[in-house]
Specification:
This protein is of the alpha/beta class. It contains 9 helices and 10 strands. It has a 6-stranded parallel sheet, with helices on both faces. Strands 8-5-6-9 form a 4-stranded mixed sheet, with helices on both faces.
């Protein structure tokens, strides 16, 4: 009703094909991505690369891991196994420069490199921490703000989320947001809580022309029907 498109993916293969089909139909050559465990689950980056589409991770930890051609080592801090010296060596090799092992310098280097990608990309791909059923709101919880760039600059936004992330109302969201930050990072609230409701509307200055939500099962309904439900 808000102008978005909802897709149902029973398997990881179906979800990958949905994203690839959108890329083919819309002429997408580059996609910027916000941190998403669901896209890791379905090996989306590999599928995009195989199809000739460049995926760019924009979360700093995920960006480091992508440049190193590795997999995340932690669900919240994907590059926690890397020292600042290793990151400096990696950036110096991959980003054509000589950079000190200083976190502020390295962050600035990544910011400059990624800003160009945000402006070039045709598609933004995110996960979703929650989706609120009665308002059609997709909720992204981040600490870097890159999620807001991914959802507002490219002309197409695709959100891929597990079906278990759907909650009934904004009242429920308030409870889950409090639980999420405390359980994940020990914060009272994450730095950025972004609420997205479909594509850009008439009169709005920013936001995508198209919004697609892919609801991923991939075994979730089977698990919910088991003893793991609680």
């Amino acid at each position: 009703r808000l102008g978005g498109h909802v897709h149902w993916a029973t398997t990881a293969e179906e979800a990958r094909e949905m994203v690839l089909r959108l890329c083919r139909d819309r002429g997408v050559r580059m996609a910027v991505k916000s941190k998403s465990m669901a896209t890791e689950e379905i090996d989306l980056n590999e599928a995009l690369e195989h199809a000739g589409i460049t995926p760019v991770e924009t979360d700093l930890g995920e960006y480091i891991i992508q440049l190193a051609h590795e997999k995340p080592s932690h669900i919240i801090a994907p590059a926690i196994h890397k020292t600042k010296g290793q990151v400096a060596e990696l950036f110096s090799r991959e980003l054509e420069g000589t950079f000190e092992a200083d976190p502020e310098i390295l962050t600035a280097v990544a910011r400059k490199a990624l800003r160009e990608k945000f402006l070039q990309a045709d598609m933004g791909i995110t996960g979703a921490n929650f989706a609120v059923a009665d308002t059609g709101t997709v909720v992204l919880v981040t600490n870097e703000g890159n999620g807001r760039m991914v959802t507002s600059l490219p002309r197409i936004h695709v959100a891929l989320m597990g079906v278990e992330k759907v909650i009934p109302s904004m009242t429920d969201l308030m409870v889950f947001l409090a639980i999420l930050a405390r359980s994940a990072t020990g914060q009272k609230l994450s730095s950025y809580t972004t609420l997205v409701r479909g594509p850009r509307r008439a009169g709005e200055l920013e936001g995508p022309e198209e919004f697609h939500l892919i609801l991923l099962d991939n075994g979730r309904s089977r698990q919910i029907a088991s003893t793991l439900r609680e």
